Amino acid sequence: MEVTNGDGVGHSDMSRKVIDEENSAVVIPETAHQISSDSWFQVGFVLTTGINSAYVLGYSGTIMVPLGWIPGVIGLIIATAISLYANSLVAKLHEFGGRRHIRYRDLAGFIYGRKAYSITWALQYVNLFMINTGYIILAGSALKAIYVLFSDDHVMKLPYFIAISGFVCALFGISIPHLSALRLWLGVSTVLSLIYIVVAFVLSVKDGIEAPARDYSIPGTTTSKIFTTIGASANLVFAFNTGMLPEIQATIKQPVVSNMMKALYFQFTAGVLPMYAVTFIGYWAYGASTSTYLLSSVNGPVWVKALANISAFLQTVIALHIFASPMYEYLDTKFGIKGSPLAIRNLSFRIGVRGGYLTINTLVAALLPFLGDFMSLTGAISTFPLTFILANHMYLKARHNKLTSLQKLWHWLNVCFFGLMSIAAAVSALRLIAVDSKTYSVFADI
């Protein structure tokens, strides 16, 4: 178990060792961040913030358009169920082996050994880096949408707004020392999410009622339909999963497993309903012409659309901090950044290191602002393995002696199926990027 001081912060100068079956030690440092301090309700809002981020404004275009009505609706419902199931497997292993595993890579290292520890950390880093990059693109797109509402001079391009967004995200990341410190900001995030979801929903309903018959056919040739369908399947996975469940669970109070299950049920009940609503209504209103950023499609008063885009921008800044927190925790722990967040050493460290990390994110976002491609590739190369393949196989290995033959077969089927889906989705995403690269240049204004 972790050793913590009175305020729930781990001693960064202490460490424990996990020994794999080959007697190769993996050193697991105690965290410099606050843990075991949050209620299940707060953690539920952390999870819900991820689901109802501004990404939700793109699902009608990136999921429903490639899949169509029946596969799209069924796909979202199935993705909800299997994501809840896979996340519950990881949550139940949080205290496996008599110790608490506060990082995804710690759990993998305990079960498999050093190589799995490193591979899991690499996959997770890629996953979170790409998600953070996507959030900066989203924030920049929201700022550009506001600009376009009030000016048509086209002087300001998307890369400029991405740069502004990256700067604001860095300021927020420097100001909030760790994940548990979000507290009040989670409430702010919820209000902001409701603003742009309600605006998108209401204006889409208005447009849908007034519009002529829509085209709901899946666009493209037979070959392109196959690839876009596979890519949309990766987007389904991306919509519901964080790839950092143990890191979020680390903040929750004891009993950690039962409290985390409450948070997960909250996420996958109350949390998904707004996402369903805005996704389905957007597709109903605009059909195959739905934009990948729904607020760009709707018609309505300028001030209402401006309010929605401002809300999307600000909520994205908050949501990014959640997905950047594992990297912040790693760096703070590695360099012993503990104590008062306002201490000169700690503050200067956050300015330099977190600011530098988000500067790299911002540069990549400005270079490659292809949101749909980004979502597909993220789901393929990291979210599939972390959320489904690894979750099922870790549970299979950890509970091997307690599972029936039928249960073992079920988990192996999951491992094999999602392994094949991961490969297929990666190929589809790479093809999509290759196709789009012929249309868009670096630092494109899209």
UniProtKB/TrEMBL annotation:
<protein>
    <recommendedName>
        <fullName>Amino acid transporter transmembrane domain-containing protein</fullName>
    </recommendedName>
</protein>
<feature type="transmembrane region" description="Helical">
    <location>
        <begin position="182"/>
        <end position="205"/>
    </location>
</feature>
<feature type="transmembrane region" description="Helical">
    <location>
        <begin position="125"/>
        <end position="146"/>
    </location>
</feature>
<dbReference type="InterPro" id="IPR013057">
    <property type="entry name" value="AA_transpt_TM"/>
</dbReference>
<feature type="transmembrane region" description="Helical">
    <location>
        <begin position="306"/>
        <end position="331"/>
    </location>
</feature>
<dbReference type="GO" id="GO:0006865">
    <property type="term" value="P:amino acid transport"/>
</dbReference>
<keyword id="KW-0769">Symport</keyword>
<keyword id="KW-0029">Amino-acid transport</keyword>
<keyword id="KW-0813">Transport</keyword>
<dbReference type="GO" id="GO:0009734">
    <property type="term" value="P:auxin-activated signaling pathway"/>
</dbReference>
<keyword id="KW-1133">Transmembrane helix</keyword>
<feature type="transmembrane region" description="Helical">
    <location>
        <begin position="374"/>
        <end position="391"/>
    </location>
</feature>
<feature type="transmembrane region" description="Helical">
    <location>
        <begin position="351"/>
        <end position="368"/>
    </location>
</feature>
<dbReference type="Pfam" id="PF01490">
    <property type="entry name" value="Aa_trans"/>
</dbReference>
<feature type="transmembrane region" description="Helical">
    <location>
        <begin position="65"/>
        <end position="86"/>
    </location>
</feature>
<comment type="function">
    <text>Carrier protein involved in proton-driven auxin influx. Mediates the formation of auxin gradient from developing leaves (site of auxin biosynthesis) to tips by contributing to the loading of auxin in vascular tissues and facilitating acropetal (base to tip) auxin transport within inner tissues of the root apex, and basipetal (tip to base) auxin transport within outer tissues of the root apex. May be involved in lateral roots and nodules formation.</text>
</comment>
<feature type="transmembrane region" description="Helical">
    <location>
        <begin position="263"/>
        <end position="286"/>
    </location>
</feature>
<dbReference type="GO" id="GO:0012505">
    <property type="term" value="C:endomembrane system"/>
</dbReference>
<keyword id="KW-0927">Auxin signaling pathway</keyword>
<keyword id="KW-0472">Membrane</keyword>
<dbReference type="GO" id="GO:0015293">
    <property type="term" value="F:symporter activity"/>
</dbReference>
<feature type="transmembrane region" description="Helical">
    <location>
        <begin position="39"/>
        <end position="58"/>
    </location>
</feature>
<comment type="similarity">
    <text>Belongs to the amino acid/polyamine transporter 2 family. Amino acid/auxin permease (AAAP) (TC 2.A.18.1) subfamily.</text>
</comment>
<feature type="transmembrane region" description="Helical">
    <location>
        <begin position="158"/>
        <end position="176"/>
    </location>
</feature>
<feature type="domain" description="Amino acid transporter transmembrane">
    <location>
        <begin position="38"/>
        <end position="429"/>
    </location>
</feature>
<feature type="transmembrane region" description="Helical">
    <location>
        <begin position="412"/>
        <end position="434"/>
    </location>
</feature>
<keyword id="KW-0812">Transmembrane</keyword>
